[in-house]
Amino acid sequence: MPLLGLCAEALKAHRVRQAAEAADSLHPWPPVALVFTTIVGTPVDPNDFSRTSARWCREAGVPRVRLHDLRHTCVSLLLTLGVNPRVVMEIVGHSALEMTMNVYAHVAVDQQREALNRLDDLLDGE
Q1: What is the DSSP letter of 63?
Q2: pLDDT digits over 56-110, tens only?
Q3: How far is residue 118 from each of residues 77, 78, 80, 115, measured CA to CA in Å?
Q4: pLDDT of residue 125 exceeding 80
Q5: More confident residue, 11 or 32
Q6: What backbone torsions phi and psi does residue 37 show, to the nearest 5 degrees?
Q7: Is 34 helix (H, G, I), strand (E, B) or coil?
């Protein structure tokens, strides 16, 4: 799976920290390779993760963002960068381009303004 370089580096560092946590734990960790775990190496409950991420956002003074919303943001940013929609579809794992374009792609206000400015230039040009 292709990843951003900064994500790959963060995951490598996380794996090192996690191995240290497992080694220092009083409880034996299960033999599964999970990225996100509880302090005893078991899967994180999605509701707990949502509450924890909401707390992190509150503590950082930033708006709360659901994990799933980050997928929408990723799609919109990639499309804004001019990445081919088919490539974006493959990156996020959609089976149909319609899902990527109609559900996940969000047009930024700046893009709307730019489009209307270009139309204005075309119509106003003499």
Answers
A1: -
A2: 999 999 999 888 888 888 898 898 888 999 999 999 999 999 988 888 877 777 7
A3: 21, 21, 16, 5
A4: no
A5: 11
A6: -135, 170
A7: coil
Question: pTM score, two decimals?
Answer: 0.67
CB atoms under 10 Å from CB of 40, counted, come to 13
CB within 8 Å of 76: residues ≥ 6 apart: 104, 105, 106, 107, 108
Question: Which CA distances in Å does 32 have to 27, 44, 104?
Answer: 14, 13, 32
Structure-token match 């990843």, residue found: 3
- Cα 20 to Cα 15, 49, 92, 115: the distances in Å are 9, 21, 31, 52
From residue 27, alpha-carbon distances to 11, 21, 81, 110, 122 in Å are: 23, 10, 46, 52, 68
- Please tell me whether residue 83 adopts helix, strand or coil conformation: coil
